[in-house]
Model the fold of this input.
Amino acid sequence: MSTSAEIRVFQDPSALFHAAAKEFSDQAQSAIREAGRFTVTLSGGSTPKSLYSLLATNADLPWDKVFFFFGDERHVPPDNPESNYRMARESLLAKVPVPPANVFRVQAENPDAAQAAASYEQALRDFFQTPVSGFPVIDLVLLGMGPDGHTASLFPGSQALGEKSRWVVSNWVEKFKTDRITLTLPVLNNAKTVMFLVSGKDKASVLKEVLEGTQPASQFPSKLIRAEHGRLIWMVDQPAARNLAGARP
Ligand code: 6PG
Done:
């Protein structure tokens, strides 16, 4: 577990999402002041929907200077109910004046998942203009965590956990019997800030293992997120934090 991790526990989901929305907005304003743009990778699943809906009410952000990417994507077309892009579009992207050119979705409709991953990596390389051997510095990486400790689409025991050079890979996820496309650890860990959003009592046991446990990180991939050059923030609510040492009884 990164020693520099910040763990912020909130009374309930509403407090968690309001604080996360403020963190997002503060970081965006700061990045835009300093560099003229803010780059963020969105996470999928259900937890971030409430954050995205809150962000959609923020009329003060210069949305034309925000550039959206995805930490991972299911191997489905963009209009599929499983699509992380569809969830983000419906809860946020269609509700704010962000230029379509600022939204970089994974073309997961491609029947060849590996090709979809490769073309997404090229799109990122074209945008970030990073030296071939380097990794992009994303301003904010949003992540969730599954009950099995996975994050993005980096699942326990996945080959993708060992990827050291590619930015985006596809990997077969046996439990879901499908391919998933995901940013790799070198990219996620190169971000300026990584912010986990974890809510609900069904995450309490896995959160305790990830933050305090000693089981192998390969079985709990969220343990492998370290934000090596930046901030790692865990935004969690009381129900999710209830098993942590020091948590209020
Ligand atoms: C996805 C996400 C994934 C998600 C976790 C938690 O594509 O599903 O990127 O990593 O963050 O599975 O999902 P919930 O927030 O729905 O619990």
Notes: The chain has one domain: 6-234.
